[in-house]
Description:
By secondary structure, the chain is α/β, with parallel strands linked by helices.
Amino acid sequence: MLSDKKIVVIGGGTGLSTILKGLKLHTHHITAVVTVADDGGSSGALRDELGMLPPGDVRNCISALAEVDEDAAALLNFRFKDGSLKGHTLGNIILAAFNEMSQSFDEAVRRFSAVAGVVGAVYPVTNESVKLSARLKNGGVIEGESHIGIHREDAESGIDRVFLTPEKPKAVKGVIKAIKEADAIVLGPGSLYTSIIPNLLVDGVVDAVRESKAVKIYVCNIMSQAGETEGYTVSDHLEAVEKHSYRGIADIVVINGAPVPEGIRERYAAENAYVVEPDIERIADRCAVVKGNLLLVRNEKIRHNFSRLARTIMKLTER
């Protein structure tokens, strides 16, 4: 039996689409709030050529929530290998077409979602074209989302904070309404500075989260990310979120408790990514911590087990 709980998930990238696949098995009252700061790959190319907002993360969420068979879902994510469409996914092209036919990007997303038979709703966090930049601890600035996640040898060049240009773009109305009416608000999993935090920089989002009576859950990444969170512990992740919002934004932090196989650790270490250490004693004064076996290793890549993570989230909404 499906739950009537209203779940809002805020993020972007693979992490957001992963958790959506699991949650739709438990409730159809799901709202995905998606960052639009991406400027690389197919999304970046369409953004430059057509002047639209980046479609990639939105398309991933539509695919995850679509009530279609596997072949149809695969079709949305099909990536052309040759010709002028090389590198583009069919779903991105379709969303670009809807964007040409619509008055705003969120309208295009809504129309695409209806055609795809999406469970719940998918919203871009804003309709404004934004650029994400990172200010480093050594005073340097990195401009552009696709340039942020790059390993830097200088230990003093970690990220201090990220910011949007223009500052405080206006949130899509449906985003604020969904957050205020939610039973649970989930931040993550996903890239800390390029998928999760950019949503919190959009005007009205943090205020809506603060005012909402929902249980607020932060799902911490299993592995650190080169250029973004090298050397970060669980508390470092949470404190970065709080730095861009407010202290105590998470009622509960969810972390993986399953060991990562040594061979996989070594492969990730070669790419400057490491297991996020669970220093939960540093955050115990302001939130609860839930630990579970949430690890999934597929094709030598570490992901959250979307089924177990979704069950964990749904249990937390019943508290």
